[in-house]
Amino acid sequence: MIAAVISSDRLHRLSWAGTRPWASTRPVLTRARVLVFALLAFALQSWALGGQSLWYDEGFSAWLAARPTADIIVRTAADIHPPLYYLLLHGWIAFAGQTEFALRFPSVLAAVVTVPLLWRLARRLLGWGAADGAALLVAFSPLWLWYAREARMYTLVTALGVAALLVLVGQLHQEPRLGTVTVLAALDIAAVYTHFYAWFLVAVQVAWLLLWCWRTPRRFLVLLGPLLVTLLAYLPWLGFVLNRLDADRSYWRGALDGVYVLTTLLESWATGHGMVPALAQPLGALLAGVALAGLAALVAHRR
Description:
By secondary structure, the chain is an all-alpha fold. It has helices at 2-7, 26-46, 56-65, 69-77, 84-96, 100-126, 128-140, 142-148, 154-171, 178-192, 198-212, 217-247, 258-271, 277-302. The radius of gyration is 21 Å and the shape is globular.
């Protein structure tokens, strides 16, 4: 799967060879580099994967995925998450079993696949250097590592969302094809049936269309089609969602002040969830400072 993502990059063409004598080796070097990024991520995420027992949410995943398919759908209709992840995990454990390693391994696979997907998306949008940086950041991100090792749906919805954005970006400057827009619809439908927050990614796609395709109404409407299909496909589940929003307050923490939100986001981004705040806060501030300094240097360089 990783090799397919890399090799389908359209910029890897022989036209490079006519301008740069070393260009014929670039596709091979690129594949090797991205493969190294993905292997590094896999090594980090799978190391001692079954070493800790399941915690509460993971235990719920294991319990629900072991139920019959009909029970999974009925139970998730009364829960805060859609059913797709549990249905996929149900099929997986029938093959791989229910050890801690087996239950967490699908999350690792989704996290590893996200590396080349994000690399290619960044390359399309920002160039080769940004692509390598994005792949390295996601491969070594403490927060990403935390969720990659958890038997939950978070890396799956991220992989689906990045894949959908990649498909959409690839169609913004060319005539959309039926097969491609069908893939886009399938990815978006899978994402919103994996986690509610995937709708934020769908909103990003709509914003992207408005930004890039407002001068080409036909292309805009064609690419808007998969997003409308996603909405229609979600209508059978929408009633359950609205009911839970109205009735379920079990995880509502009330109003949060801005400082708390900012510091929590900073700590999570910099250190994941495995470090005490006394260490996470200064480290997060340091890394944020480095990131801001790098951004300032980039802006100054482009001027």
